[in-house]
Amino acid sequence: MQLFFSYTRIQKICISVFTLGAFMAFCLGFGVAIKPANAAESCPAQAFYIKGIDVAVDDESSEIARIKATTQAQQKAWQALQSRLLLPEQPFIADNASVIDSVLDYIRIDQETVLETRYQGRFDYCFDRVKTRALFKDQGIRHAELISGDMLVLPVWNEAKTPRLWRQPNPWMQVWQDLLPNHIGLVQMKMPQSLSIERSVKVEDLLIADQKAIATAAQFEQAERVILAILTPELDGQSIDISMTAKLFRANGRFDSDIYQLDGISAPVDEITDQLSQLARGMASGIEGAWRKANQINLEDGGVLVIHVPAQNIDQWTGQLAILENLPPVDQVEVVQLSSSGGVVRLKLAGSIEALSNALEQHQLKIENSEDDGNIALKLVSTSTP
């Protein structure tokens, strides 16, 4: 059974003293929520949802082991959240219980095993976005919250002018496959999964950044961006010289920006895997850092936008408002005016215009200049194909 509850101090009492039935009754008496089983959908802000924290503790009794384990799990979740959100070089806030309790929304016990002197469990944590934002602001810590759309990573191993992506050997692909399952961040990088890509996209076309080939790969994997990372190794005696370029492309195959360029790296043949792993980690970290800086939260001077939101009916209107209210770069939404064609809203921003554009793009929306809405110069429009 999967359980959700708030107030971790009450949790320690509940799980160490009561049977399951009594635990639920006792916790409900304190106003602790027992929520639906799908924690990911229950957590209002997905960037603040930390899943799958595993702990195991042995001690003189199961009760003591359980209390220590749940404390460790909570601290690990808090560290994971900060690792995901904080901008590079920002200090972590101490993981003491009172701080974490103040920003924690609920916990789910996903799995647990209780033995005579051992407790083992897996927990999911949902942190309160508003309270966590306030804590970061008070501590002067900069952070971001916007989770990116899927970014497809295509690591091409271009040895002796024989490029490989799916065919082996491709140690460059292997290090990315090892890295990404453990990646904690806001950028959702993924490896190709569909066999259709291998059948439809020639690696030679990727080598010349063919727009159609890149767009096809993005379409098969339903990715918003494609990261094309071409690594060229050259054997030099007992060493391998490495050069690498990485570029970012949009889903339509058009070039977006350069990500990485590297020349002159050399490694002994028997250390090449370690060198490639380090290179992949550094590249992933750089992508994360750039994304967080571009989408950082600024509650003090983010600015205000007044925009026209078109709507043909009440359902469309409320749907558009819900999207705007839940965008990380938007702090507040105020309805200024309503009409038969929609309404006008004032957005108090918690980030840059670039961050707002990135967030809207994930909902196939954008803000553009308006020519037919009176004094309102900006308008929310759909980018999806009718």
Category from helices, strands and their pairing: alpha+beta
By CATH, the architecture of the largest domain is named 3-Layer(aba) Sandwich
Q: Determine the strand fraction and express it as a percent band.
A: 25-35%
Q: How many helices in DSSP terms?
A: 13
Describe the global form. Answer: globular
Largest sheet composition: 6 strands, mixed
CATH class (first level) name of the largest domain: Alpha Beta
Please report the distance between the alpha carbons of the first and last residues: 44 Å
Compute the number of strand runs: 15
| CATH topology type of the largest domain | Rossmann fold
| Poorly predicted segments | 1-34
Helix content: 25-40%
Assembly type? single chain
Q: In the residues, how many domains can be counted?
A: 3
- The averaged pLDDT comes out at 87
Evaluate the radius of gyration.
Answer: 24 Å
Order of helices and strands: EHHHEHHEEHEEHEHHHEEEHEHEEHEE
Sum up the structure in keywords.
Alpha-Beta Plaits, alpha+beta, 3 domains, single chain, globular, 386 residues, 5-stranded mixed β-sheet, 6-stranded mixed β-sheet, Rossmann fold, 15 strands
Structure in words:
- With 386 residues, the protein is α+β, with helices and mostly antiparallel strands.
- The chain has three domains: 3-139, no CATH class; 150-294, Rossmann fold; 304-382, Alpha-Beta Plaits, CATH 3.30.70.
- It contains 13 helices and 15 strands.
- Strands 5, 6, 7, 8, 9 and 10 form a six-stranded mixed sheet that branches. The protein has a five-stranded mixed sheet with strand order 12-13-11-15-14.
- Strand 9 and strand 10 form a beta hairpin.
- Helix 1 packs antiparallel against helix 2 (20-29).
- 33% of the residues are buried.
